[in-house]
């Protein structure tokens, strides 16, 4: 049985129409990271941060899973149904819901989810599809203390214990559409060295020596389905 951990980043959703963070047309060419993506930025100007995430949340109904999301879901389903002797776990840095909408069930959102909020008073994490503002009351406790359920810089990513277990037990680690600059996700490839093969799927090969055994260059909608097809036909 092959155990595959797939780490996904913004690049896998780019061909669905969602911007990456750091590309030439990246989200952060228009915003300063420290204004939006830190707890300090939110304390300074919660309306600005709420508006930023309201804008991203509003895009979700208009975008759809692409061939790369669907290929990963199909591989996972093949394992569940016994058509392929393997198991897939997706660890995503993305805050969109495109893996779930594609049909993936084993999805870990390490940087949170756009479609949830978190109450800093009662710690409820209600599902949320509309706008949120600094005076929006928490549906659980009534306090106006909701924030996006997003992991900002300086905060601990979610589910690190189960992620560590999946990484320790995998035979193959695959990273798709991530620049590899944000830790701890950027360090996963090093943590599996010695017990797992590693593959990177990206539009471009990162400069300099790579920690990955193999780099597959091209758009994820082309390269990922070709790879999963090979696995299913092997
Ligand atoms: C395609 C494609 C196509 C395009 N097909 N490919 C100094 C050293 C080391 C670490 C630190 C340090 N100083 C501070 C830190 C820690 C910090 C960090 O890493 N900073 C670095 C920037 C230096 N990390 C943190 O603070 C994290 N917390 C933490 O470390 O806690 C302590 C801890 C200790 C011990 C154990 C564990 C934890 C928290 C990080 C939170 C990140 N949050 C964000 C924002 C959330 C969402 C939002 O605001 O909208 O998450 S930041 C942002 O970057 C987002 C992403 O998930 C994340 C990664 O970006 P991603 O996905 O890689 O996107 P891009 O745009 O960078 O790259 C896209 C790639 O796709 C490119 O390569 C393209 O080529 C490719 N691509 N189209 C294939 N069609």
From TrEMBL:
Keyword match Cytoplasm: yes
Xref: Gene3D superfamilies: SIR2/SIRT2 'Small Domain, TPP-binding domain
Subcellular localization(s) per the UniProt record: Cytoplasm
EC numbers on record: 2.3.1.286
Residues that hold Zn(2+) according to the record: 119, 122, 138, 141
Residue ranges of domain Deacetylase sirtuin-type in the record: 1-234
Keyword field: Cytoplasm, Metal-binding, NAD, Transferase, Zinc
Function: NAD-dependent protein deacetylase which modulates the activities of several proteins which are inactive in their acetylated form.
Name assigned to this protein: NAD-dependent protein deacylase
């Amino acid at each position: 049985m092959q155990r595959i951990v797939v780490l996904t980043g913004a690049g896998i959703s780019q061909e669905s129409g969602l911007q990456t963070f750091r590309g030439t047309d990246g989200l952060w060419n228009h915003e300063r990271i420290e204004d939006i993506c830190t707890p300090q930025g939110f304390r300074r100007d919660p309306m600005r941060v709420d508006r930023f995430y309201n804008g991203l949340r509003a895009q979700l109904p208009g975008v759809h899973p692409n061939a790369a999301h669907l290929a990963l879901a199909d591989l996972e389903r093949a394992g569940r149904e016994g058509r392929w002797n393997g198991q897939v776990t997706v660890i995503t840095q993305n805050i969109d819901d495109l893996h779930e909408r594609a049909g993936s069930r084993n999805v870990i959102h390490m940087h949170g989810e756009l479609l949830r909020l978190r109450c800093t008073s009662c710690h409820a994490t209600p599902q949320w599809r509309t706008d949120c503002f600094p005076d929006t009351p928490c549906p659980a406790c009534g306090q106006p203390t909701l924030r996006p359920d997003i992991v900002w810089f300086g905060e601990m990513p979610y589910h690190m214990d189960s992620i560590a277990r999946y990484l320790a037990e995998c035979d193959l680690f695959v990273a798709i559409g991530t620049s590899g600059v944000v830790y701890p996700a950027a360090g996963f490839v090093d943590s599996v060295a010695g017990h797992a093969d590693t593959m990177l799927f990206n539009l471009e090969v990162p400069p300099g020596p790579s920690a990955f055994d193999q780099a597959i260059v091209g758009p994820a909608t082309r390269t990922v389905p070709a790879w999963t097809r090979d696995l299913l036909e092997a």
